[in-house]
């Protein structure tokens, strides 16, 4: 009897010493309820409760707040998510500079304006491609303005020079447009240029689709870089969706039907009908059939009631 009671209370989590003391005081024939009451009165607790009562090493955090390490990590993740959701930007430096200089001067200030515009939006990957010979001193047939900006952008790892060299006094220039389209295609980014790259579209059908869908045109208005709000036309995506990898779809706004309840289009009507919210959208013919079936069914029911006596 002593061993069975000892095993029973040990399974409940009480210590053997406490159980033996209680059994000595109450006797071996004491009921289990009395033994349990005595253990509780002595202040003995099961091991599971004792472990819970011990102070844990984890720090308690108030609801709605977070620890410093988690907070810093969360902020870093949010920032990385925000930057990773924006597409890489590849700028045709020659096209932007000549456009800002009214096709007369290679204006490097125009490139800086374009880079600053995308930086303000949060884009982290920005590359500008310019031929290497633009490093040379300006000449009368190819004037350059604010050439020091190219050096600054090169130090910031934003500007990339496409290779060129001289062979027997003649300049051999690599095709910089091919660099622009290739890098933008590999990075799944956006090309900033007013050039359509028709020769490159004819070379590669994949490049053709990419240039048609990812070419961002622009304008300069009083030294202000301004891309269009609808890069792919009126029915295309907005500028923010065009420049982001995860476009946000706008909420569909329904226009109320001008005919109201007198509308005869039924479920074919493309406008909003507030009176049809809780009704199944049936065609006009189906609605008429449903209305005619109701009185017919009522008439048949009345005839049956009259004939039953």
Strands, helices and their partners?
Blueprint lengths: L1 H10 L4 H11 L5 H11 L4 H7 L14 H17 L4 E4 H8 L5 E2 H14 L4 E6 L12 E2 L2 H8 L3 E4 L1 E4 L2 E4 L2 H12 L2 E3 L5 H6 L1 H10 E2 L2 E2 L4 E2 L12 H4 L41 H24 L2
Parallel strand pairs: 1-3, 1-8, 2-4, 3-5, 8-9
Antiparallel strand pairs: 6-7, 10-11
Helix pairs in contact: 1-2, 2-3, 6-7
Radius of gyration: 40 Å
Would you tell me which CATH topology of the largest domain applies? Rossmann fold
**Mean pLDDT level:** 77
Q: Biggest sheet, in brief?
A: 5 strands, parallel
Number of helices: 13
The stretches of 5 or more residues where confidence is low (pLDDT under 50) are 52-56, 58-80
Total domains, how many?
3
Basic shape: flat
Distance between the termini: 82 Å
Q: Given the helix and strand composition, which structural class is it?
A: alpha/beta
Give the helices and strands as they follow along the chain.
HHHHHEHEHEEHEEEHEHHEEEHH
Main sheet strand line-up: 5-3-1-8-9
- What's the architecture of the largest domain, going by CATH? 3-Layer(aba) Sandwich
Strand share of the residues? 5-15%
């Amino acid at each position: 009897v002593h061993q069975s009671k000892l095993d029973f209370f040990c399974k409940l989590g009480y210590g053997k010493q406490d159980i033996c003391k209680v059994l000595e005081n109450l006797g071996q024939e004491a009921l289990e309820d009395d033994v349990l009451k005595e253990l509780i009165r002595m202040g003995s607790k099961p091991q599971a409760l004792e472990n819970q009562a011990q102070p844990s090493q984890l720090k308690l955090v108030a609801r709605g707040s977070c620890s410093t390490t988690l907070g810093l990590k969360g902020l870093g993740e949010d920032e990385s998510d925000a930057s990773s959701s924006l597409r890489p930007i590849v700028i045709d430096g020659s096209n932007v500079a000549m456009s800002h200089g009214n096709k007369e001067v290679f204006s490097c200030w125009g490139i800086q304006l374009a880079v600053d515009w995308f930086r303000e939006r949060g884009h982290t990957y920005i590359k500008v491609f310019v031929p290497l010979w633009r490093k040379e001193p300006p000449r009368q047939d190819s004037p350059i303005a604010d050439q020091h900006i190219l050096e600054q952008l090169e130090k910031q790892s934003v500007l990339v020079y496409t290779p060129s060299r001289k062979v027997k006094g003649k300049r051999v220039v690599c095709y910089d447009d091919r660099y622009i389209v290739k890098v933008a295609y590999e990075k799944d980014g956006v090309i900033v240029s007013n050039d359509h790259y028709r020769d490159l579209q004819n070379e590669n059908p994949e490049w053709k689709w990419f240039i048609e869908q990812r070419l961002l045109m622009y304008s300069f208005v009083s030294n202000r870089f301004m891309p269009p709000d609808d890069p792919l036309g009126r029915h295309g995506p907005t500028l923010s969706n065009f420049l982001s990898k995860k476009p946000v779809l706008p909420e569909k706004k329904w226009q109320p039907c001008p005919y109201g309840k007198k509308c005869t289009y039924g479920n074919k009507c493309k406008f909003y009908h507030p009176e049809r919210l809780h009704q199944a959208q049936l065609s006009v013919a189906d609605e008429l059939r449903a209305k005619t079936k109701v009185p017919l069914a009522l008439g048949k029911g009345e005839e049956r009631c009259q004939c039953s006596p």
